[in-house]
Amino acid sequence: MPERDEWWRNAACYEVYLRSFADSDGDGLGDLPGLRSRLPYLHDLGIDAIWITPFYPSPQVDHGYDVADYRDVDRRFGTLADFDGLLEEAHELGLRVIIDLVPNHTSAQHAHFRAALATGSGSAERQRYHFRPGAGRAGIRPPNNWRSAFGGPAWTRVTGAEGQPAEWYLHLHHPGQPDLNWANPAVGAEFESILRFWLDRGVDGLRIDVAMSLAKDPGFPDLRRGDDQHPYHNRPEVHSIYRRWRTVLDSYPGDRMMIAEAVAPEASELARYVSAGECHQVFNFAWLETRWSAAEFGRVIKGTLESVRAVDASPTWVLASHDAVRTVSRYSAPSRAGEAVGLERARAALLVMLSLPGSAYVFQGEELGLPQVDVPPAARRDPRWFQSGGSMPGRDGSRVPIPWTTGAPSYGFSPAGSSPPWLPQPASWGELSVATQERNPASTLAFYRKALQLRRTRLAGLDDGVVILPSAPGTLVLARDTGFVCALNCGSRPARPPAGELILSSTDWPDSLLPPNSAAWFQLSAPPRPNRGRPAEGHVEPKGGSKAGAHPESQTGRC
Ligand code: NOJ
Question: Does the pTM of the predicted model rise above 0.85?
Answer without folding.
Answer: yes
